[in-house]
Amino acid sequence: MASPQLDEKTVTGLVADAAAAPSMHNAQPWRFRYLTGERLLTLRADSQRAMPRSDPDNRALHIGCGAALFNLRVTAAHANLLPETRLLPEPQDPLLLAAVHLAEESRGRPDEDLARLHPAIRERHTSRHPFAEKDVPEDVRTTLQGAAEREGAVLLFAGPWHAETVLDLIRDAESRDTLDPEASEDLVRWTRLGPEADTAVDGVPEYAFGPRKRGGKAPVRDFAGRRRVADRGTTTFEHAPHLALLSTPGDGPADWLRAGQALERVLLEATLADLATSLTSHALEDRALRMLARDPASGVGQVQMVLRLGYGPRGPATPRRPVQDILEIV
């Protein structure tokens, strides 16, 4: 007997939650296609939203799409569906990143641990504000590390020496950008200033820039650069930021997709633990600097993202593209 079809409202809701995921400069580089008869939802990379200067290998693009895929899995479980997921299902079509068969509850029990994360999808925002000089409890760190491990990744909390090395690499990346006039092309393309910020459906609007850093060591990318932003203000950020590095054993498209899923699982768990989070890939955008970001003790694994965690404002929600622009139902 054929499985009953999912209604359009359910499919639209799944994709809307998937698209709440973080992506580099909030470019939202994904497209979805739902095949009604097969109950199959596919995820494709949107190459028009790639960043040739900052992300020439499309590594960050895959990570963002992986985060969207994880949100899709969470929302499917919340809707009592079983998301049976295949990564890179057609090798001859590299833009087809995942295929998710939305099986009925009768095929098994939905993943309750996934469904538990659903409320955090809309609460998670990137925060570019100062965090309190307060430790993250060990049990919370353990929970976040377990979340990464469940998705095939490793989350390492950087010790003081390692954290200072990562901060040095980020400062090095900032200096290189200053010397290269073309380095900021992607950032300028995806920032939204003035009236454009009020109507934007993608990118980073000026109201999400956060204050300009007057002091402190927190790695917060300044999306304004030398451009003026009204009523922004300046403040001091934390002097001892809590940094965590997310790594995978390999470094190909499938690894990047797993890294994105692990990243979002960590971010949602952090949100439920009342942590604010922000991401920095600045030092990872240069291949030479990225290799130096590894754990100095083990020296293994491929660093895919640097997370900053702490207690403070979660930051505002950033705009999202309308679902009808990213979803095709066949």
Quick structural summary:
This protein has 330 residues and is α/β, with parallel strands linked by helices.
Summarize the SSE layout with pairings.
Elements (H helix, E strand, L loop, with lengths): L7 H11 L11 E6 L4 E6 L13 H20 L3 E6 L8 E8 L8 H4 L4 H4 L14 H13 L3 E4 L2 H20 L5 H5 L1 E2 L2 H5 L4 E2 L6 E4 L18 E3 L5 E7 L4 H20 L3 E5 L6 H6 L9 E9 L12 H4 E3 L1
Parallel strand pairs: 1-13, 6-7, 8-9
Antiparallel strand pairs: 1-2, 2-4, 3-4, 5-10, 10-12, 11-12
Helices and strands, in order, run as: HEEHEEHHHEHHEHEEEEHEHEHE
- What's the main sheet like? 5 strands, mixed
Number of strands: 13
Q: What is the terminal-to-terminal distance?
A: 21 Å
- Give the strand order of the largest sheet, numbering strands 1, 2, ... along the chain: 3-4-2-1-13
- Helix percent reads 25-40%
Globally, the shape reads: globular
Oligomeric state of the chains present here: single chain
Q: What is the number of helical segments per DSSP (H or I, 4+ residues)?
A: 11
Strand proportion: 15-25%
Describe the structure.
By secondary structure, this protein is of the alpha/beta class. The protein is built from eleven helices and 13 strands. The chain has helices at residues 8-18, 59-78, 112-115, 120-123, 138-150, 160-179, 185-189, 195-199, 253-272, 287-292, 323-326, and strands spanning 30-35, 40-45, 82-87, 96-103, 154-157, 191-192, 204-205, 212-215, 234-236, 242-248, 276-280, 302-310, 327-329. It has a five-stranded mixed β-sheet with strand order 3-4-2-1-13. A hairpin with an 8-residue loop joins strand 3 (82-87) and strand 4. The protein is globular, with a radius of gyration of 19 Å. The two termini are 21 Å apart. The model has no long low-confidence stretch (mean pLDDT 94).
